[in-house]
Design goal:
The protein is an alpha/beta fold. It has eleven helices and ten strands.
């Protein structure tokens, strides 16, 4: 296809390195807080931070290990991160190998009393053979399963409940607070699911195309098919990838490709131009502003915005 070579000539991808650095100043907010009260909890990246803050309320001090403007794909640890883990009693993670850097970092922190809550425990997962719309024979690089469970509001409910149970076990003195906070938040997530299901009901069975493979859980929940250009943001698309997406866009009569705030805007803009479609933005919530990261309802607001953008891609 003619557009393939022109798009590849214009598109550029940067490989993001995961590395532990031996020097550099600690990030603000990770220094010891003299006289602070409450359970000390460290989270990994944005959705886990939002869920944990929703459950913790005033009962715990929650520190995000990864700065809000940096996702798990491009995390680089600093000495202050090790200090945060040494001081923490609880670490909350998404799991499913999305935090590939974490095991070495925890070992380096040398905190044998650290309790780790894996929020993916018990959540039904999709592997490369089961993902809705997964292109057979296309290498999958997330690991054994796709980790983006937080983009399904009902799986997010399970994550919140697992975080609740872990915090209750770690800090029984505030058990009622954790339970009350979790119940209030999961009620909002269940209402969000019902809202999205109603809005997307007219589009059941339709396909959409995203930049990378973050949407299978969302798609499965609402009866959609999620396709993508690359498995993970760091990969370069092949000519076969581009042809596959082009055929899918023509077959499904999509009006827009779903880019994301964090990755791929320039490259996806080029592809959209070649295909004669526009760009919508679906935020997989791997990054946010500092202010957004402090408010658990950021999850609800972003998911509503994502649904509006998806409906626009369908021609709403």
């Amino acid at each position: 296809m003619a557009f393939v070579s022109s798009w590849l000539a214009r598109a550029g991808f940067c490989s993001l390195a995961l590395a532990l650095v031996a020097c550099g100043p600690p990030r603000p907010g990770l220094e010891p807080l003299a006289g602070s009260k409450g359970l000390r909890v460290v989270t990994t990246f944005l959705p886990i931070t939002l869920f944990t803050r929703a459950v913790a309320g005033d009962c715990a001090q929650v520190t995000a290990l990864i700065a809000p403007n940096a996702g798990p794909h491009d995390f680089q640890a600093k000495p202050g991160d090790l200090a945060a883990l040494r001081q923490a009693k609880v670490l909350v993670k998404n799991g499913l190998e999305v935090e590939a850097f974490l095991s070495k970092l925890v070992v380096s922190a040398e905190n044998p009393a650290l309790i780790t809550i894996d929020s993916s425990r018990g959540v039904a997962t999709l592997d490369s053979a089961e993902e809705a719309g997964h292109h057979r024979g296309h290498a999958h690089d997330h690991g054994a399963v796709n980790p983006h469970i937080w983009l399904d509001p009902l799986r997010a409910v399970q994550q919140v409940e697992t975080i609740r149970d872990g915090l209750v076990k770690a800090d029984p003195s505030c058990a009622e607070g954790y339970k009350r906070n979790a119940e209030a938040y999961t009620t909002q997530l269940k209402a969000l699911n019902a809202e999205i299901a109603g809005q997307l009901k007219p589009y059941r069975g339709k396909s959409f195309v995203a930049f990378h493979d973050f949407a299978p859980y969302f798609a499965e929940r609402y009866g959609l098919t999620a396709n993508y250009l690359v498995d993970v943001p760091e990969l370069n698309p092949s000519p076969a990838d581009l042809q596959r997406v082009a055929l899918e866009v023509k077959k499904s009569q999509l009006k827009a490709l779903l880019s994301e705030p964090q990755e791929g805007n320039r490259s996806f803009n080029a592809l959209a131009s070649d295909l004669g479609v526009t760009i919508s933005v679906f935020d997989p919530m791997e990054t946010a502003t500092e202010e957004e990261s402090r408010h658990p309802l950021t999850y609800v607001r972003v998911m509503r915005r994502n649904v509006a953008e998806l409906r626009r891609a369908f021609g709403e």
